[in-house]
Sequence to fold (500 residues):
Amino acid sequence: MNIAHWLYQSARAWPAAPAIFDGPSLLEDYAGLLASVCGRARHLRERHGIAPGERVAIFAKNAPDYIAAIHACWWLGATVVPINHKLHPGEAEWIIGDAGARLVLTDHGDSFPGRAGLAEEALGSRPAAAAPIAPPCPAADTDTAWLFYTSGTTGRPKGVMISHDNLRQMALCYALDIEQPAMDSHMLYAAPMSHGAGLYMLPQIRAGGAHLIPASRGFDSGEIIALAAHPGRLVFFAAPTMVKRLIAAARGAGFAGEGIRTIVYGGGPMYANDIDEALAQFGPRFVQVYGQGESPMTISVLPRALVADQTHPDWRARRNSVGYAAGCVTLAVLGPDDAPLPPGETGEICVRGPSVMSGYWRKPEATAETLRGGWLHTGDLGHIDEDGFLYLTDRSKDVIISGGTNIYPREVEEALLLHPAVFEVAVIGEPEPEWGEQVVACVVLAPGRSAAEAELSAWCRERIAAFKRPKRYLFLPELPKNGYGKILKTDLRAALSASV
Fold:
């Protein structure tokens, strides 16, 4: 089934339902959105010759036209290649070339004049003539709908082939595990629509709910607080850094979360102190998801009741977990021989189920390595407890080995984040001739606060073992992040080398 059929059905069932908002202003109802999609689809076919199976890239910030552009491609049976708008045009061009895209819809102007055979068009351009309303073309469940390029934290990114059925399973899991999408809610796109936030349009479309693109086209704490008052009933995905900044702004504004229905957080670790502060400020409005591009938003979930719970004897540990298996997958922690490990033992987190990608675009060897044995090998380390709750330790490549002992950066990061002057921190390893590696803390201080290296060292001395303590501190104005909000430790290692 072509996933775009959900929009066709919702628009026929609720044509007058509000569909697209630009900030607080309503732009289109569902009838208007459907007409826009059909017009764009005919334009793509007649002007650019887009046919089933061909790839269309989108290299643009969040915009009211983003949803219609994606659906116009699906209407024709084409594959969408959403690209993080923060990438350099040269990086985007590499993705476009690797995907073999015929057309790029962009707000970056004429960015790729030298690429032969590539057409460019402004994302916001609209066909002058209307088109007949018609359903999307048929598509097989296994056809690739969304070609998502991984963040490229090491080397070149790989294209993750996400099928129509993968997207359907993800959307069904949203309704089952996170919350029931509703017509009276507004899905707010503060995080990049090229990533997980954009995927969440699908359950909202199925319910005939509204989509709100902020006027800032991104994340702005003050704007979100204003939109919570009007139009309100906001639901949105936010990386932990966004949640942290929103809570700080809310505290200063005396805002307690009124008008926000749900904040889904993920894409990186939410540290214990941060989620405690968020709950204290906003109450039980938070749901945690853990996923990857290879199984989008669907590895595990910690529902709002468990995020907020303080009644269970293990509530603190559970709040620090990433929840239990999403409703459409099976989870396992496997050892080096790919054999399942017992509860409590740390190994590689693996997942299987209908939300898992079909493979990497034109990379059969990487596909075979990542999907071996019928499991998606995530590259993340963790353990599952007796009750089925999953605990992340770290990315396997980020574990620091000093003197033959494994040091998990998250333990050190948790300790440093308790210091009142530390706003963000990422811990990495650097080569050290005697011990192999030593611990380095990359620190962003809170606005108006200061802390010297000696002060942070003394802080850690009171909280973690000596072998885990940072031997060096690198103070930065901000931490580099990808479109999901994940910290790019590869960039930090480069910055560390440059600082020597």
Summary: The longest strand covers residues 422-432. The chain has two domains: 5-384, 399-499. The CA atoms of residues 22 and 213 lie 5 Å apart. The radius of gyration is 23 Å.
